[in-house]
């Protein structure tokens, strides 16, 4: 009997629409692999619970993006229900979603990071920052370049807007140069991709609109830099305890060398996404990658060892 997989998509974050695209692609690929696939658009927690009780899936394929999907929330819920799920567990998801904590982990692994500080939006506007312009503003816990502002001069501050003054943001020194990304698949990194947006900034639209961004792989960088970046991806994947896939973002120029920015413990699975593209480079098809994620699905054990 084929394994029943519930593909969970949609959700409550800014990335809902992208998640739906990921989910549809995953569901189609898993059907090609002869899995018994059930699709669910998460819009209500009780409805989701009813579907789980009715369908009794062997695995939940977590195709959610952003908050509630890759920050440990849904992972903890499925842990309690003891339903195996794809991608990283609650702890790695929570840590990886927090850009400030992730940078501390990276630094402890000997990975070079950009100077930064964390603060609430209201404090940024009332007190300023110790980081000199140019710098980047980004929410501490969000994905897909949502709420990111590049401040190259004082005039750029006029564009900064957040709908909640209590949101925690990171003020990070702007690093010029090439935008690089490196996947880690089952503990191994195969290639470095350079991201070359045809717009000024690799924002949400650039990531998910066909034709706006060019992916160069392998990236045109020195071999020793590429090797170091791949080692960073593997090292941080292991340090955080990621499951099966993760992806790090790096900036590179000749003066500073490679500089780590952040990790994604739950990379996208749309046709434009970077992990499927790098997997293909390594000889792993999209359908094979989806199958690998299902086969590696797990959940946290509730068993308590006796002292």
Please provide a written account of the structure.
By secondary structure, the protein is an alpha+beta fold. It is built from ten helices and twelve strands. The strands form three sheets. It has a five-stranded antiparallel beta sheet. A four-stranded antiparallel beta sheet has the order 4-7-5-6. Strands 2-1-3 form a three-stranded parallel beta sheet, sandwiched between helices. A hairpin with a 3-residue loop joins strand 11 and strand 12. Helix 1 packs across helix 10. It is globular and about 60 Å long. About 3% of the residues have low confidence.
Comma- or semicolon-separated keywords:
single chain; 307 residues; alpha+beta; five-stranded antiparallel sheet; four-stranded antiparallel sheet; 23% strand; globular
* Tally of helical segments: 10
Question: What is the chain-wise order of helices and strands?
Answer: EHEHEHHHEHEEEEEHEHEEHH
Mean pLDDT metric: 92
Strand elements, count: 12
Structural class: alpha+beta
Computed CA radius of gyration, to the nearest angstrom: 19 Å
Helix proportion of residues, in percent?
25-40%
Q: In terms of per-residue confidence, which ranges show pLDDT below 50 for 5 or more consecutive residues? A: 201-209
Largest sheet, spatial ordering of strands: 10-9-8-11-12
Sketch the major β-sheet. 5 strands, antiparallel
Morphology call: globular
In short:
The chain has 307 residues and is α+β, with helices and mostly antiparallel strands.
Give the topology, please.
Layout: E1 4-10, H1 16-32, E2 36-42, H2 45-55, E3 59-62, H3 73-81, H4 90-97, H5 99-108, E4 116-120, H6 121-127, E5 135-139, E6 149-151, E7 168-173, E8 178-185, E9 192-197, H7 204-208, E10 213-216, H8 223-240, E11 245-253, E12 257-264, H9 274-281, H10 286-295
Parallel strand pairs: 1-2, 1-3
Antiparallel strand pairs: 4-7, 5-6, 5-7, 8-9, 8-11, 9-10, 11-12
């Amino acid at each position: 009997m084929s394994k029943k997989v519930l593909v969970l998509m949609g959700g409550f974050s800014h990335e809902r629409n992208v998640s739906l695209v990921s989910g549809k692609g995953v569901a189609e690929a898993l059907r090609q692999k002869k899995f018994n696939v059930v699709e669910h658009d998460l819009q209500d927690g009780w409805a989701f619970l009813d579907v789980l009780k009715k369908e009794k899936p062997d695995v939940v394929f977590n195709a959610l993006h952003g908050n509630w999907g890759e920050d440990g929330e849904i992972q903890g819920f499925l842990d309690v229900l003891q339903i195996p799920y794809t991608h990283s567990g609650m702890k790695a998801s929570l840590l990886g979603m927090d850009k400030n904590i992730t940078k501390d982990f990276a630094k402890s692994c000997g990975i070079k990071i950009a100077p930064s500080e964390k603060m609430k939006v209201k404090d940024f506007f009332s007190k300023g920052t110790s980081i000199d312009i140019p710098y980047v503003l980004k929410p501490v816990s969000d994905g897909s370049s949502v709420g990111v502002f590049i401040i190259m001069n004082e005039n750029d501050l006029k564009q900064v807007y957040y709908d909640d003054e209590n949101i925690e943001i990171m003020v990070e020194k702007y690093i010029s140069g090439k935008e690089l990304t490196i996947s880690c698949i089952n503990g191994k990194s195969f290639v470095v991709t350079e991201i070359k947006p045809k717009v000024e900034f690799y924002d949400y639209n650039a990531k998910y609109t066909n034709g706006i961004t060019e992916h160069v792989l392998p990236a045109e960088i020195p071999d020793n830099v590429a090797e170091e970046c791949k080692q960073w991806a593997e090292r941080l994947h292991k340090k955080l305890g990621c499951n099966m896939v993760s992806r790090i973002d790096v900036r590179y120029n000749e003066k500073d060398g490679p500089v780590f920015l952040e990790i994604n413990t739950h990379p996208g699975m749309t046709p434009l996404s970077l992990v499927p593209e790098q997997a293909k480079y390594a000889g792993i098809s999209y359908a094979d990658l989806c199958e690998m994620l299902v086969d590696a699905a797990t959940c946290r054990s509730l068993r308590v060892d006796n002292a």
